[in-house]
Amino acid sequence: MEEKKNSPPHGLLKQNNMILRFLMVLLSSCVINRNYLCSTHPMVTPTVSPHSGSSNITASLEALRLDGHLSFDNMHHAAKDFGNRHHFLPSAVLHPKSVSDISSTIKHIFEMGTTTGLTVAARGHGHSLEGQAQAYHGVVINMESLQAPDMYFHIGELPYVDASGGELWINLLHESVKHGLTPKSWTDYLHLTVGGTLSNAGISGQAFRHGPQINNVYQLEVVTGTGEVVTCSEKKNADLFYGVLGGLGQFGIITRARISLEPAPMMVKWIRVLYTDFFLFSKDQEHLISSKNSFDYIEGFVIINRTGLLNNWRSSFNPKDPVQASQFNSEGRTLFCLEIAKYFNPEETNFMTQKVDSLLSELSYIKSTLLLSEVSYVEFLDRVHVSELKLREMGLWEVPHPWLNLLIPKSRIHDFANEVFGNILTDTSTGPILIYPVDKSKWNNRTSMVTPEEDVFYLVAFLSSAMPFSKGTDGLEHILNQNKRILDFCKSANLGMKQYLPHYITREDWKTHFGTQWEVFVMRKSTYDPLAILAPGQRIFQKARRSFSDIGLQNNQHNIQSSKGR
């Protein structure tokens, strides 16, 4: 690279950089202490700015040379998320056009040390639930503006796609099928960023076979909490690779991912059947996920006290027996729906039909409730977006979403179902309740994702929407109390439950969540984000603050102690 005119000699720059790094290590030496990294008390929304001299900090950020830009006004969108319950206004929003923008910004904040409370949060499509992608008086990075190189597709024996961490999965789907390919594992909702789901797990009805999305990644490009850009994989920088996958954004920001692909089908046979007996429902689900030649997608959900259920579904599904289906009464009943799908291409229709009939013959569902549909592969995967558009039209999308996602061990799922679906819940009018098993024996156990100890466990997701200003059963307070009752039962019954998309506010709760993985998690934090700059909204670690007067006082005390020892 050609040096700029009038720039200082390279050796002098290197020497100054070494001096600066030495000073930063000196100023931030206390931060490696875990007491600074973690709070033993619940973290609350601060009422005053976490840093002084904000005008100086703003000026220093404005001085950064970026391909994109920083905005300091009209930032309310960065203080919102899908949960719509937490609103923490940042000091700035970075709109990066390159990975260098992200690296430079984080490096600058890291080099400011502990004299500022500035933190950094990566925000994808804003689908967090508890303010996890927010940074109070910090810097929020708008990952969707990252203009990394276009998607690159490798077509061969082991096909893959290189995609930006800010790319939406729905865009990745559309581009992949143009090449006759598709990612193997999905989430139910595709308008999420690649980096966002990989920082959690990415679980849907394909996870029983392929594992979550974090199990289907070959390589990552990550910007750590020091601003370093690192390429990592299972063979290169493996500790960072596995730490970042499911790491809740604590060790680095995913700027690029190499995702495993497989041949894409064109069509999907989409099926729903109902059960009244949870034992039979769960038995059939567990049978299907353990079968070698099963369906390609297996989920389920709970319906309590819904009127005209099958008739409501007829806009999307055709009953196998319309007469019997019309006579089925769902009112006042607790029902369990098995939702399954088989992928195929048009020339395979006859074989697919025979295979589906054979698989269905092994199940114990209520025969009159068999509903079938055939849709395109893309339409099936993007099915939730249809509901989103309808809710947006009614003004019911941007409401509070007090979701609760749990992982329940197979051995305790019946205890859970008896109490929660038998006593705690009286209806499911506030939103769907998903429930389906997965087998983690096929998963990679080196990632940061935390699961129950048993190989087979159930994802149970309470996807509630709260009506604004309501004081009834569809109001936020009632749903939150209901969630608390469920969590309290899990704890008192010692179910061995783990939260998915976890949310805790004390160090002890986080330690309990991670269990034996906690020490490794803390060690990785001190290695890759030693100042606890990244993802403050997760409330796992808290950035330490030290003023220059504190540092001077400590140095004076050190000198006094040294003189006494002479």
From TrEMBL:
Ribosomal protein found in the keyword field: no
FAD-binding PCMH-type domain: which residues?
86-264
Gene Ontology molecular function, alphabetical? cytokinin dehydrogenase activity
The record's listing under InterPro entries reads: Cytok_DH_C_sf, Cytokinin_DH_FAD/cytokin-bd, FAD-bd_PCMH, FAD-bd_PCMH-like_sf, FAD-bd_PCMH_sub1, FAD-bd_PCMH_sub2, FAD-linked_Oxase-like_C, FAD-linked_Oxidoreductases_BP
Q: What Enzyme Commission number(s) apply to this enzyme?
A: 1.5.99.12
Tell me its cofactors: FAD
Keywords (alphabetical) are: FAD, Flavoprotein, Glycoprotein, Oxidoreductase, Signal
Q: Does the keyword Signal apply?
A: yes
For this chain, the family text in UniProt reads: Belongs to the oxygen-dependent FAD-linked oxidoreductase family.
The name on file for this protein is cytokinin dehydrogenase
